[in-house]
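User: For my dataset I need records formatted as: sequence, then structure tokens, nothing else. Please produce one.
Assistant:
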Amino acid sequence: MSGGLAILGAGGHGRVVADCADALGWQRIVFFDDRHDVALETPWSVAGSGEDLMAQASAFDAVVVAVGNNRMRLELLLALRSVGARLATLIHPRATVSGRSVIGPGSVVIAGAVVNIGARVGQGVIVNTGATVDHDCVLEDGVHVAPGAHLAGGVRVGKESWIGVGAVVREYTFVGEGAFVGAGAVVVASIDAGLKVVGNPARQIRR
């Protein structure tokens, strides 16, 4: 087995990532997942487990981790890199990404998303369907900006944080490491690390 793109994680997000890769022209796409009996209504097969991929990673042209859990995704990405995997960066042809932004290795930008000038996106980040990341934002490693979420200019999002579906984050605010912003929340002030916030305006519900 050699060449092509290996995707670790064959769930819903994995299929979205595969569809993105297909749109980018990847001819050979192979899934790896610990759920050996996972059934995919797609043209792509599951070739083995996560351990199998660790043993074969260097044989692929590139690898991407398509796991929704932020911490797990980043840990798996770093583990794959340590065994010689080349990390893919996937930007859907129907995403709009400034040539003056930076998208890190192992990150994916899905259809309809926008990443504007001066934005810096770390490794293992998901900028999901229709999300917008405006000028000069910084997304640290392992962040997920969920579908339809909007970050105004100059927002900084800490490592492994989650910005929920349809959430809005005011310009030049800071979302601390490991924070969780609930679906539809409107963030108008900075959020400390590890906090979970919901509502409009966003308020803390759990540390």
